[in-house]
Amino acid sequence: MLRRAGVFLARFLPPCTFRRVTGFPCPSCGTTRAVLALLGGDLAEAIRFQPLFVLALLFLSGYGVFAGGFYLAERRFPGWLKKLLSSRPALYFLLFAIVLNWLYLILAGI
Predict the structure, then answer these.
(1) Is the dihedral of CA 57, 2, 37, 21 positive or negative?
(2) Of 3, 60, 94, 103, which sits 20 to 30 A from 84 (CA to CA)?
(3) Residues 76, 70: contact at Cβ < 8 Å?
């Protein structure tokens, strides 16, 4: 049911301008199709369309549960984790992941 609603709503989204102009997918191309696949319960298809989005969704969901646990327990969030997530190496890792994902999207023809 959710997937049908998503497919209906996705018809009204404009096509990717970056792809129209350059012929190449943008770094987030395939995200709508990945969301629709997830709504339909097809994890493998979602990963095929946009692997970085699926990984980010899993990470952020886990992070939310972890941080929410600290909040509900009225404990301070670990400082070392806050530092790690806001560090330069974390930023470089994120940029590397975006570029790697973009190359995948281009080579896979997403």
Answers:
(1) negative
(2) 103
(3) yes
Q: Is 3 exposed, middle or buried (0-12, 13-18, 19+ CB in 10 A)?
A: middle
Provide the token pair at 30: 């395939």
Burial tier of 84 (Cβ tally within 10 Å: 0-12, 13-18, 19+)? exposed
Are 50 and 30 in contact, with CB atoms under 8 Å apart? yes
Q: What ranges do the domains of the chain cover?
A: 2-108
For 68-110, what is each residue's pLDDT tens digit? 998 888 888 888 888 988 999 999 999 999 999 999 999 999 8
Q: Which token pair is 51?
A: 């692997």
pTM over 0.70: yes
Q: Quote the crossing angle between the two packed helices 51-72 and 31-39, to the nearest 10°.
A: 60
Q: Which residues contact 29 (CB under 8 A, 6 or more apart)?
A: 16, 18, 19, 50, 105, 110
